[in-house]
């Protein structure tokens, strides 16, 4: 029986004569289709030799369909858009900040052809790839000088390595944080060759704690914004300006790792307690670093700003070259930063900022629209409601902040919501949802208005796949 099946396996050139395969060759190329057709036949031969009854798979139509499937799979990218219905605005697993249209266009423009990346068009001479974006950063933060590297983790490593190698760095015990992906301030410090000097306690650190710790080997006072957790209750940290005054009196520079770093004062909109980057600069902090793709809402980058003398030193560090950012990042950063020249524009066009600032009231019509569409999908088979909920900022930013929002919820006993959630991750446009108390939740805050219909289509598709 096995031998009989083996005899019926077609030769590759015969399989390629099938109309489906001919179309594939037309669209792609002979070598590719031929190789995959060979794989299909080879795999089937192996299965038959292993004793499997694969007679049905020998049908020419079945074989050709399998070839088509494999050809198409060759061009299915792994990185795909997904819809974020989790309500976590800066979702690291979902790529953190979605870019402003202007930033996307800038990347495309820069990518398609050649650019003046390191050319000064006015003089025709070689220029620095960073000049323009750095002056924009200085303009927006009030800093004397700026530098852009690969991400903020790299920025921390670079600043410590340049400013405090072989020296002591004083840090409050309450700020020895671990950022997602096991990035620990204490480990980075060790790796950069700086010696960690912890002062104060987990909840309280006083100015005199710093004062007593400063000696001739002190290279830096480091302040780390505790971006992903909060110590509440009986707590104390000296005001930034007092710390700066003390440090400068003793000739020690202050470096603040702001983590998120916002250019807009979100407190003015009732969100969080995050100081702006400009405030740190104005308080006299010598070096400040922050991420490009957290609250700033742009591309992944680490931005370092501060006093000219220090930034100059850091730029000369060999590591800076290794941490260089590419032209796409610079294009996206420039386009995003330009929007911040007009706060109204930033609020409207930088998706991260827009999503954070949307009021619950403004989200209601979209929630209602999605509810109606999903009610249509499920008919009598599920209960679809709009319920008040809370969104999160995410990305290790403003950890305790909860933004009132509307959730569209799905409840049912007639089919498995876990199965629906599973299929929602496998449809053409995956939708990331959350399961809370036996209901599937869609937070409309992080769904772009243009995606509401797409979410409904994905749900319809996923629902159709439930066995
Ligand atoms: C997020 C964060 C970092 C790391 O920034 P990346 O841009 O993700 O590398 C470093 N320090 C703090 C305080 C952070 O919040």
TrEMBL record:
| Domain (L-seryl-tRNA selenium transferase N-terminal): residue spans on this chain | 6-45
| Superkingdom of origin | Bacteria
Enzyme Commission number(s): 2.9.1.1
Q: Where in the cell is it found?
A: Cytoplasm
Q: HAMAP family this protein is in?
A: SelA
Q: What does this protein do?
A: Converts seryl-tRNA(Sec) to selenocysteinyl-tRNA(Sec) required for selenoprotein biosynthesis.
What name does the UniProt record give this protein?
A: L-seryl-tRNA(Sec) selenium transferase
Q: Which organism is it from?
A: Tumebacillus amylolyticus
Give the lineage.
Bacteria, Bacillati, Bacillota, Bacilli, Bacillales
The primary gene name is: selA
